[in-house]
From TrEMBL:
This is Heme peroxidase. The keyword Iron applies. Keywords: Heme, Iron, Metal-binding, Oxidoreductase, Peroxidase. Residues 27-290 form the Plant heme peroxidase family profile domain. It comes from Tribonema minus. Belongs to the peroxidase family. GO terms for molecular function: heme binding; metal ion binding; peroxidase activity. One of its GO terms (biological process) is hydrogen peroxide catabolic process. PROSITE patterns: PEROXIDASE_1, PEROXIDASE_2, PEROXIDASE_4.
Length: 304
């Protein structure tokens, strides 16, 4: 397919994702799906050995990976995206999943993320990432880490992230909820998740499935309230040990305090960290990826 036609297909897909998000209020689920596809990445394994390094390669669509304990509930994200994949077979699962997440962040009121596309998919279950590469939200910390902060550093440094990026990415918990029947964490329901609160960024009613415990009050809106609520005392709002660690650890706290004070700083750093997350372990075709927002494209011009 010519690059221009391919780009048009991505742009069409993005519009369809926007409609899906609006109808299903699924931004948190789709952001988590994309992070769990890419967050298996191990920078110590050379990209030449792709896809052994894990990362944003669509492997989460296969059993056994989708059944990993950390991925509980994410099959519903795949189910939501499947009709779009069927409609756009030439776009990889890896791209579709990452596009859904970046579009969800933006539609929820967050920053625009400078995405590129053209990710290659793994082709079989044999290429799935091993279990245990994603972070735990509660004790016991894997690999004998002494604290939540030590565990976070061990996991995120394996992916190539520093302290500031750990804190920025954790801010994605401004969206969504934990569910006892999925992760075993959070409450069954709160006043923010029982369907009575306005949680959409546009102020319209609706939140999709009822229940669970959110980190923030308006949990379908992307803003910096996570950094304010994590240190608050509202028992209806969730605070995992890994969330509290951002304000307990001296080096992480510097960034958490900055993002609590400045949504602008948070949005800037989140957008950069999210782009990096979305490209971990990805193999692009063409090698530089496809920038679908490039301004010098001319959709009406005959040849490109
Ligand atoms: C810092 C380490 C992290 C830990 C320990 C962690 C842990 C968790 C847990 C336990 C849940 C609840 C899942 C459920 O019960 O349904 C969750 C949900 C979520 N996580 Fe994380 N997470 C981390 C980092 C991230 C990152 C980096 C992102 C995205 C960039 C992210 C995005 C989300 C979202 C959007 C949800 C809500 C999903 C929904 O409402 O369906 N998390 N996370």
């Amino acid at each position: 397919m010519k690059l221009k036609a391919k780009r048009k297909e991505y742009l069409d897909l993005r519009e369809e994702i926007k409609t899906l998000l609006d109808k299903t209020n699924s931004a948190p689920l789709l952001v988590r799906l994309a992070w769990h596809d890419s967050g298996t990445y191990d920078k110590s394994i050379r990209i030449e050995e792709w896809p052994k390094c894990g990362g944003a390669n669509g492997s989460i669509r296969f059993v056994p990976e989708i059944n990993h304990k950390a991925n509980s509930g994410l099959v519903h994200g795949l189910e939501l995206l499947k009709p779009l994949k069927d409609k756009h077979p030439s776009i990889s699962w890896a791209d579709l999943i990452q596009m859904a997440s970046a579009t969800a962040i933006e539609q929820a009121g967050g920053p625009k993320i400078d995405m590129r596309y053209g990710r290659k998919d793994v082709s079989s279950a044999a290429e799935c990432a091993p279990e245990g590469n994603l972070p735990a939200g509660a004790k016991p910390w894997p690999n004998n880490a002494a604290s939540a902060a030590e565990h976070l550093r061990a996991v995120f440094e394996r992916m190539g992230f520093n302290d500031q990026e750990i804190v920025a990415l954790s801010g994605a918990h401004t969206l969504g909820r934990a569910n006892p029947e999925r992760s075993g964490l959070g409450k069954d329901s709160t006043k923010y998740t029982d369907g009575t609160s306005i949680v959409r960024p546009d102020g319209k009613p609706g939140s999709g499935r009822i229940g669970g415990q959110s980190w923030t009050k308006q949990w379908l809106k992307f803003d910096n309230s996570y950094f304010q609520d994590v240190t608050g005392d509202d028992d209806d709002l969730l605070k995992l040990d890994t969330d509290r660690a951002l304000f307990a650890d001296e080096r992480l706290k510097v960034h958490a305090n900055e993002y609590r004070e400045s949504a602008t700083d948070f949005f800037r750093d989140y957008a950069m960290a999210h782009k990096k997350l979305s490209e971990l372990g990805s193999k692009f075709e063409p090698a530089g990826g496809i920038d679908i927002d490039q301004v010098d494209w001319c959709l009406e011009c005959p040849i490109q």
